[in-house]
User: Which sequence fits this backbone?
């Protein structure tokens, strides 16, 4: 089976643990939407396009997480004419990926365990910042969809009846595996689901999960919303007694029966719990107080 799978006349994708989008420019060129976790996925993008007779012209990085930008370095080094596009708020992290483990390490120089390819790709220059709801690349005009929440400034890309939604939503099987959908800003994440629900494309490609049609979109988005709201509820329940962030995270992990075996996974989990705690505070359901034992979260219900 060919690596590159067609969706419509001018769109395709490379399926896998990360779905990598491809937009065909109509003149033999192609635009990659995200590049996967590392140089091997970068090689796969190149091989998929070579097999189908297309030349990579540009990369759009939807957000800075390492599993979406890890192939950038290989492609930029080996195809020097290509240019990288990214949202303004995501670009510093794409150019300087050390920033991701830094914020997961509370702003400190990160320990070795957080300096892995799962959290820190190799940086590349971002040649063009995406600031508007449309961008022209290689002669084609693409719709840009603001999908913040999973990360600070994540975007989706729509063209020719296909919405490449990045991590704006996840496949149900992915949600079942991970428990808490990762969030930087829970309220923004929920608003992005609403934004996707209003889209009229025929096909929707998540970063993780199966490609779905418009007919299946609302049900899939509802599953995502339920997972997010269930996570918030579980974290609120964990505030039955006051506790610091790590204590609350430990309670949530036990309540959800999650197995966490590595420090990168643990750091991401704690960060997601922190996002829900901030969300609860914004809703007036939780408060953070500085005590002799340090910052402590408690319920306001």
Assistant:
């Amino acid at each position: 089976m060919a690596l590159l799978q067609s969706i419509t006349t001018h769109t395709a994708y490379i399926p896998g643990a990360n779905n990598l989008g491809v937009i065909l420019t109509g003149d033999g060129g192609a635009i990659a939407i995200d590049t996967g976790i590392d140089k091997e996925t970068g090689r796969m993008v190149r091989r998929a396009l070579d097999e189908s007779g297309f030349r990579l012209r540009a990369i759009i990085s939807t957000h800075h997480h390492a599993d979406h930008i890890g192939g950038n370095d290989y492609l930029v080094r080996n195809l020097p004419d290509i240019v990288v596009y990214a949202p303004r708020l995501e670009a510093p992290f794409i150019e300087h990926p050390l920033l991701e483990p830094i914020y997961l390490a509370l702003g400190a120089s990160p320990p070795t365990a957080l300096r892995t390819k799962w959290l820190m790709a190799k940086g590349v220059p971002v040649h063009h910042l995406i600031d508007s709801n449309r961008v022209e690349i290689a002669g084609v005009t693409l719709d840009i969809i603001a999908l913040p929440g999973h990360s600070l400034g994540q975007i989706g890309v729509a063209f020719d009846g296909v919405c490449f939604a990045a991590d704006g939503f996840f496949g149900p099987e992915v949600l079942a595996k991970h428990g808490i959908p990762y969030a930087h800003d829970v309220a923004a994440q929920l608003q992005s689901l609403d934004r996707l629900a209003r889209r009229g494309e025929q096909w929707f490609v998540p970063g993780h999960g199966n490609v779905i049609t418009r007919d299946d979109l609302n049900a899939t988005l509802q599953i995502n919303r339920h997972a997010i709201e269930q996570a918030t509820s579980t974290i609120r329940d964990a505030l039955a007694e006051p506790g610091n962030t790590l204590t609350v995270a430990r309670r949530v992990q036990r309540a959800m029966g999650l197995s966490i075996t590595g420090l990168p996974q643990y750091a991401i989990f704690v960060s997601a719990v922190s996002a829900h705690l901030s969300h609860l505070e914004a809703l007036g359901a939780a408060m953070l107080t500085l005590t002799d034992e340090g910052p402590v979260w408690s319920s306001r219900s």
The chain has a mean pLDDT of 97. The longest helix spans residues 214-237.
